[in-house]
Design a protein that fits this description.
The complex is a heterodimer of chains A (about 120) and B (about 350). Chain A is an all-alpha fold and about 120 residues long. Chain A has three helices and no strands. Classes of the chains: A mainly alpha (about 120), B mainly alpha (about 350). At the A-B interface, helix 1, helix 2 and helix 3 of A face helix 3, helix 4, helix 5, helix 6 and helix 7 of B.
């Protein structure tokens, strides 16, 4: 049973290995002639001004929060959908109740403008 | 379970020698899958440039080798010997690590993809969950790349890209819930087997809205046109990988194409009956693989077709489509499916 997961573990390591090996190979094969201009961050030909790690739009943060809520919901729906046949009408209706509560929240977000992006 | 690797030409002799060695079989399977990914990417790069060229009444690459067939290989060699520039302000370790973190999950997801009834490296029960988990891992590489580059374009591109990927991942997840309700299993092989019996049994019919949501969300997830604002040349240059060059850039490129093939493969497995024949009945493994590739090529063609046809979405339009169209559509369809399955005699439609 758990034995079946062995190839996955090996493949993940191989995946990391392929990326690492290619990166190293690229470094070995390529030239390296550093130059202050070449190594400066790209900014349309201007000298880079102020730090990059600056303030950014709070909306991205909002999207991340909404994502957590909905992704948890998906994680909750997955096992439910698989055993839906076994849990029957009661299981279905209880999940619909849960979804209804979530949808109320979703509608609230919608009307609050959390999903707007101007 | 890994016997399929032995049926391949060239690999057979190795299996005869070490018939009992499981690790060798896993290793062979992994090598086959990695080589498959590399070949698919090379073919895709060539086919895309050529097809988009034809669609725009250009010739596309036709100089390297017959019909330009060796163009992708020439590109690979070029990228391999180009200098990898690490900007002075960048965090060097994270900068070089990011493309590796994008590529590893893109490759490893193939471990659970069934190419035929027995042609799967790891036949695990939670294979769809595993793929969803790995798809979420890719976003780490994007964020790390944007952060480690320490460049404004890269940073903004990474934020946009990440917000877009997570928004569409929700729609994608809900679409998958519909598939699970119909199939009653997380195992991709069983999902395909649940669709046996011919073209009318494929989930594309009862789950048509979910199919569209899934595939379009897949296009958005892979940051492909018309959802490629993260690398919109006209406004933000190349997005999160603007500072990358040489092989590090090639790894991002490689991962993007592997992910595209993955979305095509998953759409085939979940909505078009995977390796099954449209006329019902059993097929031999060889024909099954050909059918699987045929269906997959259709989706891959769509990726290129979209790129040649659609103008780029604006960012606010992308977010609106994800949150305000796809999520409500999938939620309604899930409720509708459940309602029909439990309260009407037409539940069989969804099985």
């Amino acid at each position: 049973m758990l034995d079946n997961y062995l190839p996955i573990l090996i493949f993940l390591l191989v995946g990391l290995g392929v990326g690492t090996a290619l990166t190293i190979l690229g470094r070995l094969l390529s030239t390296s002639r550093p130059d202050p201009q070449k190594n400066s961050p790209y900014e349309c030909g201007f000298e880079a001004f102020e730090d990059t790690r600056m303030k950014f739009d709070v909306r991205y943060y909002l999207v991340a929060i909404l994502f957590i809520i909905f992704d948890l919901e998906i994680a909750f729906l997955f096992p439910w959908a698989v055993v839906l046949e076994d849990i029957g009408v009661f299981g279905f209706l209880s999940m619909m109740l849960f979804l209804a509560i979530l949808i109320v929240g979703f509608i609230y977000e919608w009307f609050q403008g959390a999903l707007e992006w101007e | 379970m890994f016997d399929w690797a032995c049926t391949l030409p060239l690999a057979g002799w190795a299996c005869d020698l070490y018939a009992e060695q499981r690790l060798l079989r896993i290793g062979l399977g992994i090598i086959v899958l990695v080589v498959f990914c590399i070949l698919m990417v090379l073919i895709m790069v060539y086919a895309e440039r050529r097809l988009v060229g034809f669609m725009q009444l250009r010739k596309g690459p036709n100089r390297v080798g017959p019909f330009g067939l060796l163009q992708a290989i020439a590109d690979t060699i070029k990228l391999l010997i180009k200098e990898v520039i690490v900007p002075t302000n960048a965090s060097p370790i994270l900068f070089l690590l990011a493309p590796i973190l994008v590529l590893a999950p893109a490759l490893a997801a193939w471990a659970v993809v069934p190419f035929g009834d027995q042609l799967v490296l790891a036949d695990v029960d939670a294979s769809l969950l595993y793929i969803l988990a790995l798809a979420s891992m890719g976003v780490y590489g994007v964020i790390i790349a944007g952060w480690a580059s320490n460049s404004k374009y890269a940073f903004l591109g990474a934020m946009r890209s990440a917000a877009q990927i997570v928004a569409y991942e929700i729609a994608m997840g809900f679409a998958l819930v519909g598939v699970l309700m119909a199939a009653g299993s997380l195992n991709l092989r069983e999902i395909v087997l649940a669709q046996s019996g011919g073209i009318h049994q494929w989930y594309i019919w009862p789950l048509l809205p979910l199919f569209f949501v899934y595939f379009i969300a897949g296009v958005a997830e892979t940051n492909r046109a018309p959802f490629d604002v993260a690398e919109g040349e006209s406004e933000i240059v190349a997005g999160f990988h603007v500072e990358y060059s040489g092989i590090s850039f090639a790894l991002f490129f490689f991962a993007e194409y592997v992910n595209m093939v993955m979305i095509a493969a998953l759409s085939t497995l979940m909505f078009l009956g995977g390796w099954q024949s449209p006329f019902g009945g059993e097929v031999t493994p060889a024909i099954g693989v050909i059918l699987f590739f045929g269906k997959m090529s259709f989706f891959l063609f769509c990726f290129m077709w979209f790129r040649a046809t659609f103008p780029r979405y604006r960012y606010d339009q992308i977010m609106r489509l994800g949150w305000k169209v796809f999520i409500p559509v999938t939620l309604v369809w899930i409720g509708l499916m459940g309602g029909v399955m439990f309260f009407t005699p037409y539940g069989y439609v969804f099985h």
